[in-house]
Write a structure and sequence with these properties.
- The protein is built from four helices and six strands.
- By secondary structure, it is of the alpha/beta class.
- It has one domain (2-168): 3-Layer(aba) Sandwich (Rossmann fold).
- It has a six-stranded mixed sheet with strand order 2-3-1-4-5-6, sandwiched between helices.
- Strand 2 and strand 3 form a beta hairpin.
- The protein is globular.
- The chain starts with a strand and ends in a 6-residue tail after the last helix.
Length: 170
């Protein structure tokens, strides 16, 4: 069976839930304690496709001001990215534009999926659906509302990105 390997990056500001999303997808768990990523953490998950095996190398990158020109080197070779905002923090939505611009500067043909994370925190939600849809349209990326805590739409978001690689050729 053919094996295809794709590099996927998670991008977004500090504490939007990137590490928790990766943990939920790769090992099916969530932890309440905040774990700040320093630099990059790489995880792997294999998906069985009809004609091949897809190995996702998932790069969880540092967020915020720490993500500078030096870290853009981490984006080289990226086939797809999940760009994440925290639905309880409107400032993280503006950062999504910056991260998208940075990755498209390195790879104009990168496949993107936009995530509005922490959908389970309904009482604290500060970004409405219309605003999210407008940003997703601007970025030309599908949007998934996710919760690393409950697992809602996490698998679906990664699966959608994997479908964009179908055939292993893109």
């Amino acid at each position: 069976m053919k094996v295809v390997q794709k590099k996927v990056c998670l991008l977004g500001d500090f504490a939007v839930g990137k590490t928790s999303l990766v943990r939920r997808f790769v090992v099916g768990r969530f932890e309440d304690k905040y774990l700040s990523t320093i630099g990059v953490k790489v995880s792997r998950k294999s998906l069985e496709r009809e004609d091949y095996k897809l190995n996702l190398l998932i790069w969880d990158l540092v967020g915020g001001n720490e993500f500078s020109r030096a870290e853009t080197g981490y984006l080289v070779g990226t086939a797809g990215a999940l760009v994440v905002c925290d639905l309880t923090r409107p400032d993280t939505l503006e950062a999504v534009r910056r991260y998208t611009s940075q990755i498209r500067a390195v790879n104009p043909h990168v496949h993107l999926v936009f995530l509005g994370n922490k959908i389970d925190r309904t009482e604290e939600r500060a970004i409405d659906d219309d605003t999210l849809t407008a940003v997703a349209t601007e970025l030309n990326a599908p949007i998934f509302l996710t919760s690393a805590k409950t697992g809602e739409n996490v698998e679906a978001a990664f699966a959608h990105l994997a479908e964009l690689f179908e055939g292993g050729n893109s």
